[in-house]
């Protein structure tokens, strides 16, 4: 069986970030990356 490297905290963190990052669909990858960076800095 394969073991996931993700921990419960990873899922919790992505849940928080996803809600902030995808409030409006990003137009491109650079905007997406910037939104993720900003959202992480605010947590």
Automatic annotation (TrEMBL):
InterPro entries linked: RNaseH_sf (IPR036397)
GO molecular function: nucleic acid binding
Domain of life, source organism: Eukaryota
Record's protein name: Uncharacterized protein
């Amino acid at each position: 069986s394969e073991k996931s490297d993700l921990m419960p905290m990873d899922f919790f963190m992505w849940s928080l970030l996803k809600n902030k990052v995808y409030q409006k669909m990003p137009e491109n990858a650079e905007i997406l990356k910037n939104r993720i960076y900003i959202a992480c800095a605010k947590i």
